[in-house]
């Protein structure tokens, strides 16, 4: 975090700079509003502390200038004059908080961190909201899903979404959120499999300052950040057993306690979970708590694989191309009949994600404004042990090979295609990043 302190009193500037540095916060200072303007044109800051009374350009004028210029960072106004009218004016002009001198630097730091966290969450929510999340498809399976969503959206019922990797589980979760009474609240997603196990609890519950080594300040967890909205727990099947009991308690009591804290805080967030795993089988094998499964499985939505709804492919392809044109500045107007037929015959074991990748490549390499079958890089694939396998594994006349060999080769191919990016490779293979790392170690795969 980087903060700009603007105050004409040198001792205040130096005090805050030293105090912030002890908390690991980078701080620059300006002695007046004009100096602050110059610094702001040259560097980015996450927040500002501005004195109200300064010679030349005072605090209120500086805040007005900030908003005219489009700066969005939160501003805390400080003043030795405890005038309520000044505070009201500062807040109206765009300050997010107002503190009267003398003040406690630790309290100021806490307020700034909370404001920056709230600003970052707002930016995230706006960014996520702007992302396309329409539920595309008119097949029987998709119409059934839309019917279920219409019925459950007004409620607070917990939802469990199941389906293969790449089918669009997050898209369904977003559709539930945006048609629910919580639609104006945040949609906060977390990929359980993408967060290291030792960090997962603190991400979800947050922590108090001093809760553990390195916890230099309070952190708000995702359950709190999702208050008034929806928390989407993707890849719930990858949640460690030790944490499952704590999630169960949250679902039962609607309260959380930050790590290192003692105070229970009520939460008001709808929980939607998703998985590409067979949770019932995991329950039978003792890998997933039965009581948590039933808490999550209030409403079940199964998303059919793309190969089960090939009639939706033309609609999906048109929608994806429209988005790609906007993102890439392309001018693709459609598909030839041959291209659509080729897409409908393809297995798509990577589901909608694989379709998106294929069409993105086609947009890049097509020499026409219409995509032809020749522009599509369609390769037959098989699916073994929950993993996407390339056609080369089962070439005609090839000797029978063990499942371990096939699995190892699929991992190597995916890693090469994504130039070693384990997250992308795991998505293609339909497994979590944690599982992929375990497999890389198991098969002694060098990168």
| C-alpha-based Rg, rounded | 26 Å
Strand line-up across the major sheet: 2-1-3-4-5
Number of helices: 18
Overall pLDDT, averaged? Answer: 84
Shape: globular
The helix content is 40-55%
The counted number of beta strands is: 18
Share of residues in strands:
15-25%
Taking the alpha carbons of the first and last residues, their distance comes to: 34 Å
In short, what is this structure?
The chain is α/β, with parallel strands linked by helices and 447 residues long. It has helices at residues 10-22, 33-42, 59-68, 84-93, 105-130, 140-152, 169-178, 197-205, 222-225, 241-253, 279-284, 290-296, 313-328, 337-345, 351-365, 403-417, 422-429, 433-442; strands at 2-6, 26-30, 47-51, 75-79, 97-100, 159-162, 187-191, 206-207, 219-220, 230-234, 255-256, 265-266, 270-275, 299-302, 334-335, 370-371, 381-384, 387-390. The protein is built from 18 helices and 18 strands.
């Amino acid at each position: 975090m980087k903060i700009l302190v603007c105050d004409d009193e040198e001792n205040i500037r130096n005090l805050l700079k030293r105090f912030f540095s002890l908390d690991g916060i980078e701080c620059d200072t300006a002695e007046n509003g004009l100096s602050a303007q110059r610094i702001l044109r040259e560097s980015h800051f996450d927040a500002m502390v501005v004195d109200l009374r300064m010679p030349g350009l005072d605090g209120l004028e500086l805040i007005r200038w900030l908003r005219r210029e489009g700066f969005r960072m939160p501003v805390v106004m400080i003043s030795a004059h405890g005038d309520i009218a000044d505070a009201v004016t500062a807040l109206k002009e765009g300050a997010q908080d107002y503190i009267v001198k003398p003040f406690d630097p630790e309290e100021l730091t806490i307020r700034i961190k909370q404001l920056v966290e709230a600003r970052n969450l707002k930016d995230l929510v706006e960014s996520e909201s702007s992302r396309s999340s329409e539920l595309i498809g008119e097949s029987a399976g998709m119409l059934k899903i839309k019917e279920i969503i219409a019925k459950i959206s007004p409620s607070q019922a917990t939802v469990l979404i199941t389906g293969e990797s790449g089918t669009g589980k997050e898209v369904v979760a977003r559709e539930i959120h945006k048609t629910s009474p919580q639609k104006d609240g945040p949609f906060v997603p977390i990929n359980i499999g993408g967060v290291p196990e030792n960090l997962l609890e603190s991400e979800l519950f947050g922590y108090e300052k001093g809760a553990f080594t390195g916890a230099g300040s309070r952190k708000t967890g995702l359950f709190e950040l999702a208050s008034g909205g929806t928390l989407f727990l993707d890849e719930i099947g990858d949640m460690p057993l030790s944490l499952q009991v704590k999630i169960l308690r949250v679902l039962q009591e609607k309260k959380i306690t930050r790590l290192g804290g003692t105070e229970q805080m009520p939460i008001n967030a709808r929980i939607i979970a998703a998985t590409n795993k067979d949770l019932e089988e995991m329950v039978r094998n003792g890998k997933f708590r039965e009581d948590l499964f039933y808490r999550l499985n209030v409403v079940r939505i199964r998303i059919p694989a793309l190969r089960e709804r090939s009639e939706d492919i033309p609609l999906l392809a048109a929608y994806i191309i429209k988005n790609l044109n906007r993102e890439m500045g392309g001018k693709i107007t459609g598909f030839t009949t041959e291209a659509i037929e080729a897409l409908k015959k393809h297995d798509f074991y990577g589901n909608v994600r694989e379709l998106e990748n294929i069409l993105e490549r086609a947009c890049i390499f097509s020499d026409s404004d219409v995509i032809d079958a020749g522009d599509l890089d369609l390769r037959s694939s098989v699916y073994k042990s929950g993993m996407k396998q390339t056609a080369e594994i089962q070439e005609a006349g090839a000797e029978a090979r063990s499942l371990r060999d096939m699995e190892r080769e699929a991992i190597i191919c995916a890693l090469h295609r994504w130039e070693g990016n384990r997250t992308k490779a795991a998505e293609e293979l339909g497994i979590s990043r944690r599982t992929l790392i375990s497999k890389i170690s198991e098969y002694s795969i060098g990168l």
